[in-house]
Amino acid sequence: YRDGPSVEAARAAFEAMARRKGWALVVTDKGGVMTPAMLRRFDAVIWNNVSGDVLTLSQRKAFRNYVEGGGAFIGVHGSAGDPASFWDWYSDTLIGARFAGHPMNPQFQDARVKVEGGAHPVAPGLPDEWVMNDEWYSFKTNPRATGATIIATLDEKSYKPMGMAGQTLIMGDHPIAWTRCIGKGRMVYAGIGHRPETYAD
């Protein structure tokens, strides 16, 4: 599944950030770049709402070796939103949480985001909390339990965490953005970002 509007809005935001910061940025939707020789050229790899089984076995191996050997991974929203996973390392080790679902009635809701990792280098300038409208993911496992450093959580009392056919999506402690070390590498994931408008904020 490719959510085109979200992908394009996020891409524009990353390109604007790269221009402001003076970073080199390469954009592709081709899994063939996942080779040891190509990956060595990059400090970080961003998965911009990537969904589905997108890499071959050799590409998976190259990407895993890249991250565990010192590379960085940034995952955006849909990059952890597959109901079925075909790559246990990606879901259980890299992301550290499996997708459970998101609200459906309504799908997009206002919710309060609370920052608890404001001192972390990925969170400078974030307010202590804010309210925004998005598609809020819940997870079957809590990334805090797998050693992640939590950047932000959702206040589940501020929205209705109910999925299809009355599925409860209540986590209690509900991380929505986190980071962790993976071997010599590092990762950060944020479940925020389904609505294209989010990326202009």
The N- and C-terminal alpha carbons lie at a distance of 25 Å
Give the helix proportion (percent range).
Answer: 10-25%
Which spans have pLDDT < 50 for at least 5 consecutive residues? Answer: none
**Structure classification:** alpha+beta
Give the number of helices: 4
Radius of gyration: 16 Å
How would you describe the shape? globular
Largest beta sheet: strand ordering: 1-2-9-8-7-4-5
Which whole number gives the mean pLDDT?
93
Run of helices and strands:
HHEHEHEEEEEEE
**Share of β-strand residues:** 15-25%
Name some characteristics of this structure.
201 residues, two-stranded antiparallel sheet, alpha+beta, seven-stranded mixed β-sheet
Q: How does this structure look, described?
A:
With 201 residues, the chain is of the alpha+beta class. The chain has four helices and nine strands. A hairpin with a 2-residue loop joins strand 8 and strand 9. The protein is globular and about 45 Å long. The two termini are 25 Å apart.
Summarize the entry for a quick read.
By secondary structure, this protein is α+β, with helices and mostly antiparallel strands. It contains four helices and nine strands, in the order H-H-E-H-E-H-E-E-E-E-E-E-E.
How do the helices and strands line up, and which of them pair or pack?
Layout: H1 4-21, H2 36-39, E1 44-48, H3 57-68, E2 72-76, H4 88-95, E3 99-101, E4 109-115, E5 129-134, E6 138-139, E7 149-155, E8 175-182, E9 185-190
Parallel strand pairs: 1-2, 2-9
Antiparallel strand pairs: 3-6, 4-5, 4-7, 7-8, 8-9
